[in-house]
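Quarterly update from the structural biology core.
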Amino acid sequence: MSKYAAKPLFPEKLHTYSLKNRKSKVGVERFARVWEPDPSFRDFIAGLPDILGGSDFKAFVQAWVSARSQGRGMILGLGAHVIKVGLNPVIIDLMRRGWVTALAMNGAGAIHDFEVAYAGITSEDVADQIQQGNFGMARETGEHLNAASEAARRQDIGLGEAVGKMLADSDFPHRDVSLLASAYLLNIPVSLHVALGTDTIHFFPQVSGEALGKASLTDFFLFCRLVCDLDGGGIYLNAGSAVILPEVFLKAVSYVRNLGHRLEDFSTAVCDFIRHYRPEQNVTVRPLRGKGSGYYFVAQHEVFIPLLAAALKSNRIE
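Predicted structure, tokenized:
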């Protein structure tokens, strides 16, 4: 028994509401539309200036095309903001066309992806909801995702696979625009990297730290295996995660090399709307040190990622 006078404030009396009744800022009707590839778009990309960001963008696109042609890993590390700005259709299209071999996400990404699939809405007004303690209290989100973590523990699988299976097997009306469901159906691995206490589902009565920890740790080691495929020309893009995924990537690189795997000559990039120290160092600098190329794109995700997708798809690769 703990000697502390302060006792944990457990969630037995938590007050919840239905996700379907919550006012949300994002709906699927505003999501991006998929652009059909046109080889002439390569002329537009070629016409960008060979200066600063223009030069970097063309080099990164070419590195990605080369990774695809050589069968190397092409991993997207996605923060939740990428989902909140309506980019699921664009990313799902890239997965279907073979431009993505794996996804890595944080816990918030799974929450927003679930809400999109379940109700076609996500992104509540935090500043308003938190005043009365209503932020994060959508009942279905907590119940379904915690049930998925328990399923992961029972089946001895990772959290990304368990959530993807739950969504793919569901009758949720918008599961076709779920990243996790689509990846599961396409057999594309997804690793979910959870930090306990950072996600709203962690304060639901159904939460199990044991289940979340075991399933997320399984996903870390899955991610390490996927990072091995970056060697010799692979691609890792970190979009919208300022802390969790950059830290996970740095540790994965060290772990993989410690086990004796060759991990050199690959390309990394960060895309975010401001420049962050940790993503820059942990993704584009420290893992490479002259043995690959790192890029940092200061851009809005909702503009940069569709542009990147169009640039990739304009290259015909059989």
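The chain has one domain: 37-313.
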